[in-house]
Amino acid sequence: MNILARLRPLCLLLLVPLLLTACVDSDELPDDARGNFEALWRIIDEHYCFFDYKREQYGLDWNEVYQRYSRQMNDKMTEAQMFEVLTNMLAELRDGHVNLYTAFDVGRYWSWHEDFPRNFSDDLLDRYLGTDYRIVGSLRYRVLPDNTGYIYCGSFQNEFGAGNLDEVLYYLSPCNALIIDVRNNGGGKLTAAEQLAGRFTNEELLVGYMSHKTGKGHNNFSAPEEQKLAPSKGIRWQKPVAVLTNRSVYSAANEFVKYMKCCQGVTVIGDRTGGGAGMPYMSELPCGWSVRFSACPMYDRQGQSTEFGIDPDISVSLKDDDYFKGIDTLIEYACHYLGR
């Protein structure tokens, strides 16, 4: 059985963990602290996809990580202590797609957004949306006072119906331009991101590449396969667009920004996105805990990794003075930019 046959891909979801797992044979290693440590380190060593990239970015050395955390393991550890050590070891990967699932907690790495300014306020969003905005699935939309269309997309957890997107764009069609705000969108389904992005191109676009793991070595990958964005068969937007981003744009939302950067007439405004450019897979430890990790790397159309985020075309931050005045700096800047 080859390696990928032992790991079931999460083909659509980039953030939501599935209960289906592909297990490392629990007979291979004992169900004790040492056995679970060895199993987890080996799973990541053989199947994780960003070792070379992260060695280049910040000097990650997975063998050194083994030596350092191995010394912390002992047979007298409680489950909670073992969980803490294993979670800390996984955090060395600096990957929001890496999680350890137990009956009592979820190990996670969230510094990719917690260590940065939010550049977003729910209170300000409510002020701009008002109370008479429209709702379609995860989309909230309205016409702003300067006749700019505004869509807030907080999630890609569910796909969009073609008819729903037609209705949204038809309603906003009299507007001079459109803002799509994906700040704080943690991801969901790639297909949902593709459905929305497909409304902003009139031709098939090369938007990036994806590779697949082909062996246990850190460099065992298939040749990159092209990612194409197809134009929607429904209503397509033909006027200027601004996409608003912050550090909490992750996973499928990060891919959406990657797609939109390839579309004509689109400007990305805000902060660098959070990243999350690895298609996640799951496996299981001898104790029954599940581990999720990035196994298939995705790249932009220049062949560059977006694992640590995508830079905006125009960098804009939420100003404190504006916040206290009830003004969202990013929305106001986008309206001004689009109205030039």
Short description:
By secondary structure, this protein is of the alpha/beta class. It is built from eleven helices and 13 strands.
Overview of the structural elements:
- By secondary structure, the chain is an alpha/beta fold.
- The chain contains 11 helices and 13 strands.
- The strands form 2 sheets. It has a 7-stranded mixed sheet with strand order 3-4-5-6-9-10-13, with helices on both faces. Strands 1, 2, 7, 8, 11 and 12 form a 6-stranded antiparallel sheet that branches.
- Helix 9 links the parallel strand 9 and strand 10.
- Helix 8 packs parallel to helix 9.
- The N terminus is likely disordered.
Key features of this structure:
340 residues; alpha/beta; 7-stranded mixed sheet; 6-stranded antiparallel sheet; 11 helices; disordered N terminus
Give the helices and strands, then pairings.
Blueprint (H helix, E strand, L loop, with lengths): L32 H15 L3 H8 L3 H9 L8 H13 L7 E3 L4 E2 L3 H4 L7 H8 L4 E3 L2 E5 L4 E6 L8 H11 L4 E5 L8 H8 L7 E6 L14 E5 L11 E5 L6 H9 L5 E5 L7 E7 L5 E11 L13 E2 L4 H5 L4 H10 L2
Parallel strand pairs: 5-6, 6-9, 9-10, 10-13
Antiparallel strand pairs: 1-2, 1-12, 3-4, 4-5, 7-8, 7-12, 11-12
Helix pairs in contact: 8-9
What spatial order of strands do you see in the largest sheet? Answer: 3-4-5-6-9-10-13
Contiguous uncertain segments of 5+ residues = 1-26
Name the structural class. Answer: alpha/beta
The number of helical segments is 11
Shape: elongated
- Span of the ends, CA to CA: 59 Å
Q: What's the rounded overall pLDDT mean?
A: 92
Major sheet details: 7 strands, mixed
SS elements, strand count: 13
Helix content: 25-40%
Oligomeric category: single chain
Q: What share of residues are in beta strands? A: 15-25%
Computed over alpha carbons, the radius of gyration is 22 Å
